[in-house]
Amino acid sequence: MAVRTVVVCEAQVPFVEGGAEFHVRALVTQLREHGYQTELVSVPFKWYQKKEILAHAAIWRLLDLSESNGQAIDLAISLKFPTYFVRHPNKVAWLIHQYRAAYELCGTPYSDFQHSETDVGLRDTLMRLDRQMLNECQRLFTNARNTASRLQRYNGLTAEPLYHPPRLADKLRADSYGNYVLSVGRLEAVKRIDLAVEAIALADSSIRLVIVGDGSNRPKLEERVEALGISDRVDFAGWVSDDTLIELYAGALGVVYVPYDEDYGYVTLESFLARRPILTTEDAGGPLEFVEDGVNGTVCMPEPSAIADAISKLAADRSNAARLGEAGYARAQQISWDGVVERLVGATGPLTTGNGSKVP
Does the N-terminal or the C-terminal CB of the chain have fewer CB atoms within 10 Å? Predict the structure, then answer.
């Protein structure tokens, strides 16, 4: 059956915008540009208290998106928990992530799941339901190899990674290498902007840190900057316009991107497309699928002193910064939307387990 009409399913936390939201909207735009009649179906999501999680999953399970106004909808694409609970006979998942606090973040400072009977029960239920709902999909994709590995480890499901360009891909450009390093992303604990703050205090004093983004961790970060006495070297820019972000990428010495076990990370490819080297860490997850130490960036220990050393080395050798940036640009140029759309829309095969057999 030829696909003409597509719905893209989004779980949206009101007033929160980040990589996942940009991802969803970019997909809608690309599907339309490729000739598919596409609508975004967005339902608010509340992740706290934990008892709310299953209720929000149930909301998606109640939705039947197989038709609209008497006309069939040919394809439903789900991207993150709990949108893949939706009912549709031709459902495809392109997984950004599941409910991470119940998965790989459990047991870390970035999760509120404890080893209590209630939390263990909820975690088991979420994993069981995820496997069941994802099993309904005609095909299963992820946004990165890191996400696919988690899915195999926790749910026994095999997914095909589909990489996509960042939304500013055709607008990013390079300028001269300035006297600041850039951090871009939500100011939440798991993004570890605090490592960048601690590092800049130890790095070459001629280099500043510009932080783009906002979030619940901002007050703590501002307090720490004040305590370190580096207010003159750290700029909290908040969320900025696309034009401003493009300018900031273009003039940066490099980009510090040190999240904990990130799924994919637009920032990596945005940095590369602006010909800027990435400074990341050995436990960053998704960025490591693109960043090669000494080739197009630096991969170091998740410690302020190691990150500071990497920043100082870029400041001391700008020709090396340029070499790394050019290599990153060449890597990012290999990724396009055409293959992603083709795989998502044309996907019809059965979901398989790690040994190639169909999931029961």
Answer: C
